[in-house]
Amino acid sequence: MNAHKLRPAIFLDRDGTLNVEKNYLIRVEDFEFIPGVSQALKHLQDAGFLLVVVTNQSGVARGYYTLAAVEALHGYLQARLGPHGVQISAFYVCPHYVGGQAPYAMDCSCRKPKTGLLLQAAAELKLDLGRSFMIGDKLSDAQAGQAAGCRSLLVRSGHPLPPDAPFEVLADLAAAADKILFSASESR
Known about the structure:
This protein is α/β, with parallel strands linked by helices and about 190 residues long. It has one domain: 3-Layer(aba) Sandwich (Rossmann fold), CATH 3.40.50.1000. About 35% of the residues lie in helices and about 15% in strands. It contains 6 helices and 6 strands; from the N terminus they run E-H-E-H-H-E-H-E-H-E-E-H. Strand 1, helix 1 and strand 2 form a beta-alpha-beta unit. Helix 1 (about 35-45) runs parallel beside helix 6. The longest helix has 15 residues, at about 65-80.
């Protein structure tokens, strides 16, 4: 496929980036967007980026909840974004954890910081990784993005980050979206 036909994407971690971090979130009644998320996603989508969630969900391997429950939560997230004109193009989930339960107890290629989720999305959605961004709240998110060829940004809205994080750190998704959109306007 020609590179000019490939689309840029915003790869998004879920917990701590889109929604308030709650250990092993699975119940829709516990789901809470971080302020400004829907507007930030709308601006990125309107700028031509596909929105793709890539999330580690070791709670599946640990037996805390099922993969079907994760998919149901993602359906709820998508429904909450719909009235804002936002459409997540796809959700990619790593349910694996080495210390977990079968059949998910394994060392896989999709658990961030590995690149499997991003590479799968790029192949299936015809994405240009070089024009894409990965936004997350953990070093493993940024490392996965960088290793896949994306520009990575970290947000402080989730897990605490080390003071010497080797990636650009912004307050939250709204600030990251502003940064990306400003950079895009500067390069035109």
